[in-house]
Structures are given as C-alpha cells and as structure tokens.
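Explain this record to help learners:
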Amino acid sequence: MAASSIEDLSRQFRAALDAASSPADLKAVRDDFLSRKQGRVTALVKSIATAPPEERRALGSLANALKQDIEEALDARDAVMLATAGPKDAVDVSLPARRPWVGRRHPLTQVRERVEDIFMAMGYQVIVGPEIEDDWHNFEALNMPASHPARDMQDTLYLSAPVPAPDNGRAATLLRTHTSGMQIRYMEAHDPPVRIIAPGRVYRRDNFDATHTPMFTQVEGLVVDEHISLGDLKGTLNAFAEEFFDAKVTTRFRPSFFPYTEPSAELDVECQGCSGRGCGLCKHTGWIEILGCGMVHPAVFEAVGYDANRYTGFAFGMGIERLALRLYGVDDIRMFYENDLRFLEQIAL
C-alpha cells in the first residue's frame, strides 16, 4: 500500500459526499467508508500491516488523518441537511409524543370488579373458595339431597362418582355449579351476623351457544342476622341495580323457586335495547332477568348449626356474563370469549 492509495480513497469519498442529496444517501456514504466490518477506511487500516516496516508509521498517520477528515465532513454535511430540511423532513419537537398501546382488563373482569365495589361499599366482605367442591357444600347443605329434582337443573360435572357415604356425600367431588358452597363454608366457620359476597368461576354441562357457556362467572351474596326481612332483600337489590345500571332503571321481582330459599324470586330489569317495548334481546318480554334471590331456607341454617328461630337471612346469585349482556346491549355471550380485540376494545368500561 502507498500514500497514493490514501489520496485516491480521499478523492472517492469527496465524490460520494458531493453526490449525497438526502439523509439516506449520507448514511450510505458513512457505511461505505466507515463501517467496522466492510468500510473502505477500515480495510485501508488493516492493510497497513502488510506494508514495509519502515513505512507503517507514516501510512498509519495518514490513514488516521483520513478517517478523522471523513468523520468531520460527514458530521458537517449532516448538520447542513438538518438545518435546511424541508417541511416533510423536519421534526416538529412541539408535537405530543405517540402514546404506547396499553392493554386493559377484560370486560367481564371489569364488570365483576364493579359488582364487588358496589357491595363492598354496602359493607359486604368478598370471599373466595375452591372451584373443586364436594357434594355436601354444593348440594346437601343447600337443601338439595341426592333425590332432589333441582339437581337436574345444575347439569353437574362430577370428578368422582356420587356414591352414598356416611359423611353426607362429602366424598363425591365435582366442579362447583355455583358459589353458594362458599356461603356454607363461611357459615360453618363464623357466627352471625354475616354479610358476604362470593364471586368466582362455576361450571355446568351446558352447550356453548348465544346464551349459555359451560364455564361462567357468578357472584352470590348472603346476609344473616336477627330480624332480616324480605324488605331488606328488595331494598338491597334495588339499590344495587340503580348503582350498577342507572338511577332510573326499572326493576321487578317475580316469584320463583330455589331449594335453598323460601320464598324465592327473580329480579328483572327493563330491557335497555327496547325500553320495555319488546325485542329479540329480551325475547319480546320487555324484561331481562339478572339474578335469583330469596330468604334463606331454615334447612340451610340447620345444616350449618344456626338457630333458625333466632336468625333470618337472604341470599342472591347473579351471573357476570348476564349482567354484561344487559349492560352493553350484546346479544351473544360467545363474543366475550372469542378474544376479538375489535369487540373487546369497544365495550371497555
């Protein structure tokens, strides 16, 4: 390698620099001459090792000077381009920064949290428990013995075959069909007064269609104390509906049947989709059922050792998915489980 090679490389750089007319061109020139792996200056410096020993010092000095000149020339041209950039190339530093995309909790989770917040504000305690339950807590203690027809309504998913046992069926295990078993567990461990809600996933042998799913989220509530009346139940649930939906929401209580409450009722709210006139969402009734409720049956108190002559109470249970359908005006429960972000992002609270 001779000094003439360094001069030739300098001329080549100047020609390439003069031809660069954009920041992209300038970057290409920088990479061509200064890249650590394939840059021309890098190759030049490496070739000095093959020069005669007496010439290496002088050639090294010239090569370093060329590298410094190229860096300074590139930086100067870069500054000129930035100062003379047109409107399309300029950066407006006064513009707000782009907000990064962030995730959010699932709509069903938000509905559950909203329900919990409302009842906690009323003084309720939130409790959770096992999703794998035994027959006693899921059925027997709730006034549903093995022969009770109400068991057919549950479509239970058993993990072990239900067989007669001296411990009232505790040996049979199943995926809980409701969170009412947590009410039994709490009463077994606590004396009145009781004011709790038990949210959680429950399982039933249902088909996955527009109105059913084999797994859903339920919130059950229980109040036990002296002198609890049906009026307390109606006032509590009306207050919940007004807070959850709207202060002007119209509700009605209909007689119903549940083996663990007597009397039993269902709470309906006026259909939001048609304002009570009747539509496909409410099956042309003008009403949508949101929960079941009633006064706790004395047999349930006897199962947990409460004095049914001294204490009364009420219980209620609601499905989070059903509340979400009513709140958002959605007519297909499957939409909450298909993970379509176009849908989920539209209905976040």
User: Anything to note?
Assistant: The beta strands are 125-126, 132-134, 157-158, 173-175, 194-203, 215-225, 251-258, 261-270, 287-296, 312-319. Residues 3-83 form one domain. The chain has two domains: 3-83, 107-344. The mean pLDDT is 85.
